[in-house]
Specification:
With 290 residues, the protein is an alpha+beta fold. The protein has helices at residues 22-34, 106-110, 114-124, 160-165, 168-184, 217-223, 225-237, 272-286; strands at 2-10, 37-39, 51-61, 64-73, 100-104, 131-132, 141-151, 188-198, 203-210, 242-249, 255-261, 266-267. A hairpin with a 4-residue loop joins β11 (255-261) and β12 (266-267).
């Protein structure tokens, strides 16, 4: 793996008027050094992670608190196998069984869509609080996330609970929000479902990303329910230490695109050649110019 020290964040006011507190920086440092934090190109989860953070350190430079990270870029020999980082495991979402939380980014606030997002949260799970995500990257991708706690699983059909509990009003609210978002901006807009599968022996996060969400989003999900469940069961029964399993719909039918071991390295990659080309491009950017 190729290694480079990069600046992760600081406590200066950014262009949006936001500032990370010293407590937030300390928390990020602690999480980076206790969990496996992976990095995606332009924060785009439709592609496998390009590397992971090996270590983080908070320093003070002329009164500015800066969080530095030791970033390691994956190379061809690293993928499709586990590369343990001590006992650390991939940082994953946590969601209680039967609960649903909506997460959105700044774009929904700036485009006056927060009332619609709040309505969606109320319809899906009124006991949960809407979570607002501040993005520090400059990627032109806006994301709405539904985080769903599934709990344990023993066979096919474990998605039925969510698909049944999310009633017609909730689906109608989500579709309305998707259409309003399209009218507000031409930026790339993703809607993703993150399912937290956990039992006493196993935990895995299933991410289903709709790159071009439409009014058929519920039907797409239901149509490919078996595909999603079979992949989870296959890994579980084969004792494969998957931390994240990612599916993508980008206008074509929903399909599996990659998975990530608990150590953060990707495997079972659908378009491996495209991914290797991306890694090679990133490697050239990291190496000193001749």
């Amino acid at each position: 793996m190729l290694t480079k020290v990069v600046q992760l964040s600081n406590d200066m006011v950014d262009k949006h008027g936001d500032r990370m507190s010293i407590e937030a920086l300390e928390s990020a440092e602690a999480q980076t050094n206790s969990k496996v934090i992976v990095s995606h190109n332009e924060h785009d989860f439709t592609y496998p992670p390009i590397g992971r953070m090996k270590h983080a350190k908070l320093i003070n430079n002329d009164g500015v608190n800066i969080l530095l990270g030791e970033f390691t870029l994956f190379e061809q020999d690293d993928i499709e196998k586990e590369n343990l980082l001590g006992e650390r495991e991939l940082a994953l979402h946590q969601q209680e069984r039967g609960r649903i939380r909506v997460l959105c980014d700044r774009a929904y606030e700036t485009q006056d869509l927060m009332d619609d997002v709040s309505q969606l949260q109320e319809l899906l799970d009124s006991s949960e609080n809407l979570q607002f995500e501040l993005k520090k990257s400059v990627e032109p991708i806006s994301t709405l996330t539904l985080l769903v706690g599934i709990g344990g699983f023993v066979g096919a059909g474990f998605l039925n609970g969510f698909l049944g509990e999310a009633g017609k009003d909730a689906w109608a609210s989500l579709k309305s929000l998707i259409n309003k978002k399209k009218l507000k901006s031409d930026e790339e807009n993703h809607v993703q479902f993150i399912f937290d599968f956990t039992n006493e022996f196993y935990k895995v996060e299933v991410m289903v990303i709709f790159k071009k969400p439409s009014d058929q989003i519920d039907q797409e999900l239901k149509l490919k329910q078996e595909l999603i469940e079979n992949k989870v069961i296959k890994y579980y029964e084969s004792s494969i230490r998957a931390g994240r399993i990612v599916f993508l719909s980008d206008g074509d039918e929903l399909r599996h695109v990659y998975s990530v071991y608990k150590c953060g390295t990707p495997f079972d990659i659908a378009n491996k050649q495209e991914y290797l080309s991306l890694l090679q491009e990133k490697k050239k950017q990291m190496l000193p110019q001749q």
